[in-house]
Write a structure and sequence with these properties.
Blueprint (H helix, E strand, L loop, with lengths): L1 H22 L4 H42 L11
Helix pairs in contact: 1-2
Length: 80
């Protein structure tokens, strides 16, 4: 999940930087270098955010699983 989030956000940042550089009529080398820098920085940020999201999801799933195991309400056929 972290890699997918990082890759998607990095490609989006690259495309935005590329389009904005072309719109501003920057030179090709300036546009590409800035787009690559934006892509690299966004990839790193995406990895960090994705890792945090994975950890949060894992913690929440373990807590919910423990709550279900420790629930005191036992259902039976007679409850219906």
């Amino acid at each position: 999940m972290a890699r997918k989030l990082a890759a998607a956000s990095a490609l989006f940042a690259f495309a935005c930087a590329l389009l904005l550089g072309l719109r501003a009529e920057n030179t090709f080398s300036t546009t590409i270098s800035r787009a690559l820098i934006a892509m690299a920085a966004t990839f790193i940020v995406g990895l960090v955010i994705g890792a945090m999201a994975e950890r949060m999801l894992a913690e929440n799933l373990t807590v919910s699983a423990k709550k279900i195991e420790n629930s005191e309400s036992k259902t039976s056929v007679e409850d219906r």
